[in-house]
Amino acid sequence: MAISLMNYTGMNMKRFATALILTVALAGVLTGCSDFLDINEDPNSATREQLEQVPENLIPQAAAQLAVNKSIENYYGAIFSQTWAGVGFFGNFTSAGRYNVGGLTFGNTFINNYQDAAGNFTQVIDIAEQAQGDPGAVPYNPTNVRAQAEILRQYTYFYITSFFGAVPYTEANRVEQFPEPSPDPQEEILRGIIAELDTAVTNIDPAKQGIGGDFFYQGNLDNWERFANTIKLKAYFLLLSGEGSRTGSGVEGALPNGNDLQTEIENLIAEGNLIQENSQNFAFPYLDEATQQNPLYGLSVQFSNGENVSWACSQELVNQMLAEGESRDQDPRLRLYCQEDQIAGSDFTGTPPGAGGTGSQPLSNGTIDESVVSDIIHRPEAPEEFATAAEVLLKEAEWAFRNGNRSTARTKLEEGIRLSIEEINGYTNVASPVTEPEINAYLNSLPSAGNLTLEDIQLQQWIDLFERQIDVWNQWRRTKVPDLTPAANAVTDGGVIPRRYNIPQNERSANPNLESRRIETPVWFEGPSANN
Predict the structure, then answer these.
(1) How far is Cα 335 from Cα 376, in angstroms, rounded to an integer?
(2) E strand or H helix at 214, and its extent?
(3) C-beta separation of 372 from 312 below 8 A
(4) Within a domain: 116
């Protein structure tokens, strides 16, 4: 009998990244946060009575599942968006550049995030809601714990719909009521996420304790509110795009439900309770220890002694950052993002989509004639970022431009780029940080307020999101900036760049309410002519 894993938590799944990669990442969370765990068992096998006393123990497990999927499964987003190019590793990542996405990637992204991320966050929410009737009976603050779990659950649903479009939302993770949950249109999911985040933020009491062992914000609930509002901003910009207002200055009309999108976004930005500094970034922390490394780096440890022979900088990215023939200077982040190619020695060479690489396997032996993703990015302790200050400031720049405030747009653009550079400069393994004069020279070379275009701002958003797999794919799909040329050897119909993942076959077999969607079909937020 077919079983829908969206609502079933006992089924094992073969992982793309192998059991070792996933177990390593989870062990890192549990080992690094031992004070979080009063239960000396796997939280997923703890009794209901134990979980009712410490439901927050499920949060690191669920967050790890989400972060691992973001880190290891979905490098495709950066490859589709041409900030990265797949090379090496016995052809697997070159195949990704031709848009050949395996079924396990669909399955792991859909099933694991409904089951192990959203499913566990839902358990925490249910238990905390029950405890709110008698908060003195439990050793935690149920209202704050519920709100924090809800913020992470809504981010998980945002992540899932970004890949698949219309998916179960209002009926998801409620197997008793909805054994075969129906999908919701993507616009309604985004609206629902915003509403649930509003409720979560309203219920947070910063004067009281949140989850114990908070490895994201160390108990700072003000920053949890900023994170929730930043997810809202992401959702608003997809709503804005879905309403067809991708170009020009201003917002084209009200939403079908009568809400004024202009006012909603304006109020959110004006309140200022968003991630505004790099110290407020929301990221999953990996460490330079064997059981706690970033899974992409861990994959390189398994197959190439830690050397990156799998991911390169794309031709489009290198060309845009070199800015040859453009009035702007070369982007100083280029040397932070990409390594010089091993043959030319003092040059950067981007890889065309689907072209593969020149290095031998399993090690390069100095034969790679393209710029691989740098060791600053490809490193054991590279965090998995969910939301950053730079992306917020660059979205605020776009919003100001859309509303005719060019001077503000230019100021926000500078602030966003500066934060983007300063964040990477702060990494411990940066041998040659970008200097202040370099930053100033680059910013001064960008178009003045009077000459600034919407595309100038959106290009900087794309560059900033270099390694942020789902965010950069969302960014390109909603803006189509830069104008990308698909891989010459693409396997998609018409050779188009993929626009979504298809819901896995086993889930569609188990739940007749789910439909097959071709990866060439645009998601709703790509505009009025797109599908859900």
Answers:
(1) 10
(2) none
(3) yes
(4) yes
- Tell me the C-alpha distance between 352 and 85, whole Å: 7
| pLDDT tens per residue across span 276-323 | 999 999 999 999 998 899 999 998 998 888 888 889 999 999 999 999
Q: How many domains does the chain have?
A: 1
Amino acid at 58: L
User: What is d(CA 111, CA 19) in angstroms, rounded to the nearest whole number?
Assistant: 16
Peptide bond before 447: cis, by omega within 30 degrees of 0? no
The answer, as to whether pTM is greater than 0.70, is yes
Q: Is 443 inside a domain boundary? A: no
In a domain, 521, yes or no: yes
pLDDT in tens, 311-339: 999 999 999 999 999 999 999 999 999 99
Mean predicted lDDT score pLDDT of the chain = 87
Residue 393: which of 417, 365, 371 has the closest Cα?
Answer: 417
Better pLDDT: 522 or 32:
522
| Structure confidence at residue 31 as a pLDDT band (50, 70, 90) | very low
The answer to whether residues 131 and 52 touch, using CB atoms and an 8 Å cutoff, is yes
Q: Is 92 helix (H, G, I), strand (E, B) or coil?
A: helix
Measured CA to CA, the distance from residue 68 to residue 302 in angstroms comes to 16
- Residue 25 lies in domain: 5-9+16-247+282-288+491-526
CATH number at residue 213: 1.25.40.390
Instruction: Flag whether 419 is in a domain.
Output: no
- As a whole number of angstroms, the distance between CA 173 and CA 167 comes to 12
